[in-house]
Amino acid sequence: MLERGFVVVPTGVALVAVLVVCFVRRTGARRTCLYLALTAYVGAVAAVTLFPLPVEGGMGYAPTWGISYNLVPFAGIARTVADAAQTGWWWSIATVIVGGNVLMFVPLGLMLPLLSERLRRLPAAALVLAACSVAIELAQLVAGLAVAGYLYRVVDVDDVILNVAGGLIGFGLWKAWERLAAPKRDELV
Fold first, then answer.
1. Helices marked H in the chain — which ranges?
2. pTM of this structure
3. How many CB atoms lie within 10 A of CB 77?
4. In angstroms, rounded to a whole number, what is the distance separating the alpha carbons of residues 94 and 89?
5. Are the CB atoms for 101 and 163 separated by under 8 Å?
6. Residue 178: HSE in the Cβ half-sphere, 13 Å Cα cutoff
7. Strand, helix or coil at 102?
8. Which residue in 15, 34, 81, 125 is a FRET match for 72, CA 20 to 30 A apart?
9. Residues in a beta bridge with 2
């Protein structure tokens, strides 16, 4: 079993590499901090979405718990809410699964417009958010089938919907911050 801590070393190496590239290219301090934050964020998302990774089961071993995929929009969310209401674990189940998927992409939604002028438009940002979320689901599918030999995580279209919603919240926070900061910048000119 590869635990979440496995991601620390590759993320640390990536952080050092980003720092070296930014130094060589004489990237400004703000941009360097943004790249470092994005690198740490990607490492954290990988740790949460792909690990722990079961590797000792080998090919052919398939656990019997639950559904391994959901391609019907909102079906997983409805099932999660229904299970939570039925078991009385409303807060823990719904918050972790639904809220966690939303919150996970808020930082990305905040960072995208800071990374590129093109990503300051909602359609472009939404497209990148959706692509990143689909990439995570595909990575879970590939890691499950290629490494573990079975789907150890639920590959779920609802995760994409919730991730994009969270990213759009982050984008909205950036937009609000821009509007609040604009009058202050105009006063300085």
1. 8-24, 29-50, 75-87, 90-94, 100-115, 122-142, 157-188
2. 0.86
3. 20
4. 8
5. yes
6. 12
7. helix
8. 125
9. 53
pLDDT tens readout for residues 7-38 = 899 999 999 999 999 999 999 999 999 999 99
3-state secondary structure of 53: strand
Q: How far apart, in whole angstroms, are the C-alpha atoms of residue 139 and residue 153?
A: 10
Backbone phi and psi for residue 53, each to the nearest 5 degrees, phi listed first = -105, 115
Quick one: tokens of 55? 């590797």
C-alpha 108/C-alpha 145 separation (Å) is: 27
3-class DSSP state for residue 98? helix
Exposed, middle or buried, 86 (CB in 10 Å: 0-12/13-18/19+)? exposed
Considering only CA atoms, which of 16, 96, 17, 4 is closest in space to residue 43?
4
Residue 64 tokens read as 């019997």
Which class for 180: exposed (0-12), middle (13-18), buried (19 or more C-beta within 10 A)?
A: exposed
